[in-house]
Specification:
It is a single chain. The protein is of the alpha+beta class. The chain has one domain: Beta Barrel (Hypothetical Protein Pfu-838710-001), CATH 2.40.320. The chain is built from six helices and eight strands, in the order E-H-E-H-E-E-E-H-E-E-E-H-H-H. It has an eight-stranded antiparallel beta barrel. The longest helix is centred in the C-terminal third of the chain and has 12 residues. It starts with a strand and ends with a helix.
Length: 201
């Protein structure tokens, strides 16, 4: 089933401080800190990228999911451009490696890999929203996802200036980081980006 995904991302310097504030606000730990490995697939000519779509296999702990994301209908998207809105179709998998093999047989190949440690928080509200804390090789980020009103209330409760929020994907953040640092890394992984470089960021 396809759903509209509305989110904002922001860089954070102190994940523990943010999570302590979430707990004070009544959020509960939905998923403890878990390693996440993501692989994006596309054709050799990057057909999906040209249409601003992504096809992803994610391993989050022991769970595999396959996700397709595309642009939202402009008529149904929020009027403000400060939110990132995508149409997302996602389902869990029994065997991520088997699906990866199917993709490659169909002409899709791995084009980008990114990793992080993710912690998920929820306040249990309906309609639901959640805050995730991502620890990546190039820095720490929080993602706030849910209905627009919920996102705005959560930003206010967390004393976060909306001007500090961004809509960049991790792929874009990685490319910007490469440009700033001159790194030769091809993927956003802990193996390709050693700790001293990460600390320098």
């Amino acid at each position: 089933m396809a759903n509209a995904e509305i989110e904002l991302k922001l860089p954070i310097t102190d994940p523990q401080s943010l999570q302590s504030r979430l707990r004070e606000l009544g959020f509960h730990l939905q998923t403890p800190r878990t390693f996440e490995h993501n692989t994006l697939y596309d054709t050799p000519s990057r057909e999906l990228r040209s249409r601003t779509e992504i096809l992803r296999i994610r391993q989050y702990g022991d769970t595999y999911t396959v996700t397709h994301k595309g642009l939202a209908d402009p008529q149904s998207a929020p009027s403000s451009s400060r939110y990132k809105v995508r149409i997302e179709t996602e389902t869990t998998l029994g065997d991520g490696e088997a699906l990866a093999s199917i993709f490659e047989r169909l002409g899709y190949q791995p084009v980008f890999t990114y990793e992080k440690y993710r912690t998920e928080w929820s306040d249990g509200s309906e309609p639901s929203g959640h805050v995730v804390v991502d620890e990546t090789p190039i820095g720490n980020y929080a993602e706030i996802e849910g209905p627009i009103d919920w996102i705005d209330r959560t930003l206010t409760a967390l004393h976060i200036d909306p001007a500090t929020c961004i809509t960049d994907s991790y792929g874009t953040l990685f490319l910007n980081w490469k440009q700033r640092t001159g790194s030769s890394a091809e993927n956003l992984t802990f193996a390709e980006i050693p700790a001293p470089v990460m600390a320098a960021h």
